[in-house]
Amino acid sequence: MTLAGRWAYRVRQFNKVWAGGISLAERAEAATVLASPLLPLYLGMRPEAQRHAFDVYAALRREGWDDPDLLAAALLHDVGKGRLHVLHRAAWVLAGALSAGVRQRLALHTPLGVWFGLRVNYLHAGVGANVLAAAGASPQLVRLGARHYAPEPDDAKLRALQRADDDN
């Protein structure tokens, strides 16, 4: 994707934030996918994070995926971000526009990493996997959450999750 196309995509993604969270019908659908104690993890996310996660889930459903762990991973892949503010999420995207290496160095080795939420963003997959495991999630769900940024070309489910996440 071109730089202009990538920026246009990010603007559209940011505009979703202003649309709000999920509808009551979407919340009910998420409840059919996430059994207790996983549903409270999803509902504890910020409204814009719930929106993003539900959009990832809906994209997988449109593609025909029905694997319960994959669909749950779509809804919970960002649970490790906690209640990170949308401005911190934007800082992550903007730092990444400079370069992945710069973003990593800022996240891990400067006070800016804490102040701008870069460290939370950088570490969220592992943190989320720990949260999922502590909540009693299946090993596959924990693995999908932990690896949702890792390139694993032989894992069709992980690739589908990554593609849906990138597109939403």
Rounded to the nearest angstrom, the radius of gyration is 15 Å
Number of helices: 11
Class from helix and strand fractions: mainly alpha
Strand content is: under 5%
- The ordered string of helix (H) and strand (E) elements is HHHHHHHHHHH
End-to-end Cα distance: 15 Å
Low-confidence blocks of residues: none
Helix share, percent: over 70%
Q: Please, what is the average pLDDT?
A: 86
Total DSSP E strands: 0
Largest sheet: none
Q: Could you give a short description of this structure?
A:
This protein is mostly helical and 168 residues long. The protein has helices spanning 3-19, 24-33, 39-43, 47-62, 68-76, 86-98, 100-109, 111-115, 118-134, 139-147, 156-167.
Commentary on this structure:
The chain has helices spanning 3-19, 24-33, 39-43, 47-62, 68-76, 86-98, 100-109, 111-115, 118-134, 139-147, 156-167. It is mainly alpha-helical. The chain is built from 11 helices and no strands.
Key traits:
168 residues, mainly alpha
Strand-helix topology:
Blueprint: H1 3-19, H2 24-33, H3 39-43, H4 47-62, H5 68-76, H6 86-98, H7 100-109, H8 111-115, H9 118-134, H10 139-147, H11 156-167
